[in-house]
Design a protein that fits this description.
Blueprint (H helix, E strand, L loop, with lengths): L2 H36 L7 H20 L4 H12 L9 H10 L5 H21 L8
């Protein structure tokens, strides 16, 4: 296996982890809302809920302070070492552009991340996780 292939594979693996994290945040919130309506106990799990809330809060804070997501930076690093082009914008922005041919300014993503984080926080407060005492 050549170094270029190795770096490309590492970039692809980083992309998979990044997509999984995005899916966890988005579909996790959907599962929490459905679980709230249906009384699913697992959607009250404290580790799940704390990890979910922390994930979107980190994303929100990154955009507020203008920090590139570490997973985006890592994937770009691997792609550049493989001789490929990295992202010219945010991870979500780049994929929306690829998937939907839609381009939006960074402030819009910051606003959307903030609103989503507030929705997750509201759900966390209104449908709190259950912490085991013992």
């Amino acid at each position: 296996m050549s170094l270029s292939t190795l770096y490309s594979t590492l970039a692809d693996l980083t992309l998979i982890v990044h997509v999984a994290l995005v899916m966890f945040v988005v579909f996790g919130q959907l599962a929490i809302l459905i679980g709230w309506a249906r009384g699913w106990a697992w959607t009250c799990g404290s580790m799940f809920r704390l990890t979910h809330l922390a994930s979107i809060v980190v994303v929100m804070l990154e955009t507020w302070v203008g920090v590139t997501c570490p997973l985006t930076a890592l994937e770009n690093h691997w792609r550049q070492l493989a001789g490929q082009a990295g992202y010219q914008t945010s991870f979500i922005g780049a994929w929306l552009d690829r998937l939907l041919f839609y381009n939006a300014p960074d402030w819009l993503f910051t606003t959307l991340y903030t609103l989503f984080a507030l929705a997750v926080l509201a759900t966390f407060i209104l449908y709190p996780p259950r912490f085991r005492h013992g």
